[in-house]
Amino acid sequence: FQRIINNNYGSCRYLLSSIKSQLINSIGFDENIYLNFDLRKKGIVYYFRIKNTEYVEFCPYPMLTFQSNDNVFVIQTDKNIYKFNILDNKGHREFINNLYNYKNNIRL
Fold first, then answer.
1. What mean pLDDT value characterizes the chain?
2. Under a CB-based contact definition with an 8 Å cutoff, are residues 39 and 59 in contact?
C-alpha cells in the first residue's frame, strides 16, 4: 500500500558484477545475475540468487553509501560492497533521484 501512496515501484534492472564482503573474499560469477532495488521507508532492499541460493540485503539509509558513473553503480552497505553494471541509463537516473529523496527525508 505504501508503494502506491509514495509512487515507488522499484528500480530498473541491474547486472550484479561483483561482491566484496567482510566475511568472505570477493565473489566472482559464472552466470549473469540481474536484480532490482526496492526503496522502503527505512532502507533499501534487494535480493538475488546465486546457484540456487537466495540472498537478501537490507540496509538502512544512514548506513548506505553509493557511487555512480557512466556504466557502473557501486553500493556499500554496512557489511558488503556491491558493484553493478547499469543497463538503462534513463531508469538509473530516475532511481538515483528517488534514492536521494528517500535517503535525505529519513527521520531518525
1. 83
2. no
Rg of the chain over all Cα atoms, to the nearest angstrom: 14
Supply the pTM of this predicted model. 0.81
Total length of the chain: 108
Task: Give the dihedral sign, CA 12/13/15/18.
Answer: positive
Q: How many CB atoms lie within 10 A of CB 57?
A: 19
- H-assigned helices in the chain: 2-6, 89-104
CA distance 93 to 97: 6
pLDDT tens by residue, 27-52: 666 788 999 998 888 889 998 888 78
CA–CA gap between residue 41 and residue 18 (Å, rounded) = 27
Q: Say if residues 26 and 17 touch (Cβ distance below 8 Å).
A: no
Taking only the tens place, the pLDDT of each residue in 53-77 is 888 899 999 899 999 988 999 999 8
Q: Are strands 43-50 and 37-39 parallel, antiparallel or unpaired?
A: antiparallel
Answer whether 81's CB lies under 8 Å from 67's CB: no
